[in-house]
């Protein structure tokens, strides 16, 4: 393997989303052909030149997204007949997985183009973020069209609140979540944060829990369904007015998936021992100012002082080494795990958010993947923990809590215009 190949492929592909990169490549062609970087020298009125450029680019981008939409429809049809290896999309983008719904990409492009003026740009081609947001809008539109949406699960850090912070009462996501609950949409918070005590979740989520409590007391909400699944797929709590901290612990027997009975204490200990050893070696080899935090179902490293920031390189190297060591060990044959970079810490958790979302769906009466949306910030294929939720349901990839708020507003707007809610 040449060095260049290793750097470009082996070490970087996990940091790119193949579907998004592929769409970006398709849209680059009309951008190159129709953008007008030289319009400033043109003798014709500039507005005329730019207006024509924008309308041509818009038409071409929309056509391409329409074609991608059709390829996804074809992929879904083959998925249903169990012959997805014949899918043309799979040939073009080998890493594509399951699609739980079609994606209304052409309509979503028109919506995002109106907001972001993608086709009016002369120097900046359609970007990763443009396409990520088009995919999110397309997902929301498709969920509403195929409705009703029954469950929305949210990641915690970076999705609902800033990294390492708490969901405080002034967070604008709160009225949006209450709105979902009032429409009979069930809400789950599927977070890596793994605590056995309700008080710890209350400390992180008190703004939301107190507001939901008030809405119930004021009779604005009747019997809202709000649950928290912590430690990726390990601890379930449900909102309950009469419980301390408004949260009631739900015994594993009541929600566990049959496969989880294989997650024996012995297997868990063996896997966490392997992970701990790998993390300790990274601390020593990379000279990290970090210490081990071992929990019942997780092991991680956190900086020795809360003011200390680990560098991106340290975090990435550690998560990649640890992922590889655990994956290669016999312990990983018996148990799913998730190694991820938490921004200023690294954790290896037992289970993952795929199992977490599946457990929520089962506990809530068997909700399907096509009626569930998981919103998260970590969708890269290695070192990220929301990625596995793609095995259980539709997803939206946001970059910060403000985008989560925008996404929920989009959901509400499209639902209203569709007349579903
Ligand atoms: P998420 O973004 O909601 O999935 O939360 C991830 C963050 O939770 C991590 O970056 C950690 O800072 C924190 N955390 C606390 N306890 C745990 C644990 O047991 N496993 C993984 N992350 C944890
Ligand atoms: Mg997160």
Automatic annotation (TrEMBL):
Reply yes or no: does the keyword Nucleotide-binding apply: yes
Q: Name one GO biological process term.
A: inosine salvage
According to UniProt, the reaction catalysed is:
IMP + H2O = inosine + phosphate
Report keywords, A-Z.
ATP-binding, Hydrolase, Magnesium, Metal-binding, Nucleotide metabolism, Nucleotide-binding
Q: Which InterPro entries match?
A: HAD-like_sf, ISN1
**Any Pfam family hit:** ISN1
What would be an example GO MF term here? ATP binding
Q: What is its EC number?
A: 3.1.3.-
Names of the cofactor(s): Mg(2+)
Is Metal-binding among the key words of this record?
A: yes
Q: What does this protein do?
A: IMP-specific 5'-nucleotidase involved in IMP (inositol monophosphate) degradation.
Assembly, per entry: Homotetramer.
Q: Which family does it belong to?
A: Belongs to the ISN1 family.
The protein depicted here goes by the name: IMP-specific 5'-nucleotidase 1
Organism, per UniProt? Lepraria neglecta
